[in-house]
């Protein structure tokens, strides 16, 4: 009996279709942003994508999406990340996608009709307000409060930090503490907030180390510091019931971490392709760079890391397809994939020399962007702590650490 690594024909076909879409449409369209408004460029791309059936790959067909399972969706995302416009062109960009999935799973029919439909149609965008300065990587440290105002409304007060895409969002998922006396993970609830709202005040877009192009804010919406003051939210906008906010948030972040990783694979692949093309044409001291062993070793390291990254994601996709627990693998992959993309892009810059360090190529911009991957959706250290703790638990329970190191299936 053998392990079958053959990708199903239908998944392979959709991957090829998306790969062609990214290379024929999205990457060329990036250059149009130098002279045309984003709304015009993206609007044309989205209309063309929908006409080809390339829309919301993660969403079921009854919701207007492509209805892809975890494996096919991961293959698609590993193509889309090659272009800045890839995910946006198919309405599968973060942080919207994970929030859409959360609403699909937990919303009432009224909430789906009012909030989910325009998100799936690409008419609106949504941000996720969870992180706070006071809490950082510990989501249970949130201090934003939500208190009942009779039976009709909740009143929210607090602050949020690094709410990505708030600047372009029409809706926000806001997590707040509804019962400080409940068990630690049952103190929080999630609310759907319509924006703009006087009680949800974007104080500023936080400047980061990332190099920003002319359309940076329109593309991503920035990372906002938000003041929540006497924010009135109708009780009917409570999502999934009181006390379930933390669990929903962690499930949402689990997909977000993997989607980041999938896009990291695509970005790293494009960087490696660029570097390899360059060294096959560039000579120094009379010798082609591609013929130098040191350069070949650098390319080998990148190829090895990409290979392991793909295997990680495919293994996790397999477990998701089977409904198996993937908590441990999710954290392992999150840390590895964030470091992998940083390493590959850094190598591509090195091989391009001064050209790579310049902003004539996208490598420098990518380098400053991907550094964030080791911080968002839980810093590396938190995930490594969780992984290590699970290794110890596995040994105490089974007398071996295998189940915490992929050994439950491999």
What is the gist of this entry?
The chain has 410 residues and is α+β, with helices and mostly antiparallel strands. The protein has 13 helices and ten strands.
Give your account of this protein's structure.
49% of the residues lie in helices and 14% in strands. The protein has 410 residues and is an alpha+beta fold. The protein has three domains: 9-92, Acyl-CoA dehydrogenase/oxidase, N-terminal domain (Butyryl-Coa Dehydrogenase, subunit A, domain 1); 126-243, Beta Barrel (Butyryl-CoA Dehydrogenase, subunit A, domain 2); 247-404, Butyryl-CoA Dehydrogenase, subunit A, domain 3. The strands form three sheets. The protein has a four-stranded mixed sheet. The radius of gyration is 22 Å and the shape is globular. It starts with 8 loop residues before the first helix and ends in a 12-residue tail after the last helix. The mean pLDDT is 93.
Topology at a glance:
Blueprint (H helix, E strand, L loop, with lengths): L8 H24 L5 H14 L18 H11 L5 H4 L6 H11 L2 H12 L5 E4 L15 E5 L3 E12 L6 E7 L10 E7 L5 E6 L10 H5 L2 E12 L3 E2 L5 H35 L3 E2 L2 E2 L4 H29 L5 H26 L1 H4 L5 H8 L9 H19 L12
Parallel strand pairs: 1-4
Antiparallel strand pairs: 2-3, 3-7, 4-5, 5-8, 6-7, 9-10
Please supply descriptive tags for the structure shown above:
about 400 residues, alpha+beta, Butyryl-Coa Dehydrogenase, subunit A, domain 1, Butyryl-CoA Dehydrogenase, subunit A, domain 2, Butyryl-CoA Dehydrogenase, subunit A, domain 3, 3 domains, four-stranded mixed β-sheet, four-stranded antiparallel β-sheet, 13 helices, 10 strands
